[in-house]
Amino acid sequence: MKKIGDSNFKRLIGIWKTTGEIKSGKENLKLIGIDSYELILDGNFILHKADVKMGNDKSETFEIIRLDNSLEKAKMQYFNSKGEDGMMWSSIINNEFKIEGDGLKFIGTINEENSIIIGKWYIQTENTEWIEFIDLNLEKQNNMV
Question: Does the CA dihedral 39-1-8-118 come out positive or negative?
């Protein structure tokens, strides 16, 4: 069985300072927090924990990431502090990092040193148009491999 610890997703392992800007009507809101990614259960899964403040709202998310029939694609099962849960799919091919879920997607890049992720979250409107929702920057705080 292929382990996620042997895939491109190992590039996420570590603690990240997360900053961004949420597009919210007339006035954009700040996003700030910490994301961590750690290998668990003998390198078969990654546990992603996000603890962020979005404007004045605190949000926590736990997510289990596992390979999806390829070293470049993964399933991401998430649970958050609002009681929501769901599944998203992700890929890391070369330096391109993509996540897709129900009405939500992320398109970003990871630098060669695996120390910076820059990207944008998009939400799908009722007329199926994708609009920019969050500009996101993650900066690795340690160099765990």
Answer: negative
Q: Does 70 have pLDDT greater than 90?
A: no
CB of 82 closer than 8 Å to CB of 59: yes
Contact 68, 84 (CB under 8 A): no
Please give the CATH architecture assigned to the domain spanning 4-140: Beta Barrel (2.40)
| Token digits of residue 61 | 């998310």
Single-letter amino acid code for the residue at 53: K
For the entire predicted model, the pTM comes to 0.89
Beta strand 116-124 with 29-40 is unpaired
20-43 residue pLDDT tens: 999 977 789 999 999 999 999 999
DSSP run (H or E) holding 126: none
The DSSP code for 57 is E
Q: Return the number of other C-beta atoms located less than 10 Å from residue 31's C-beta.
A: 21
Supply the pLDDT for residue 8: 93
Domain limits, the chain: 4-140
Q: What is the model's pLDDT at position 143?
A: 55
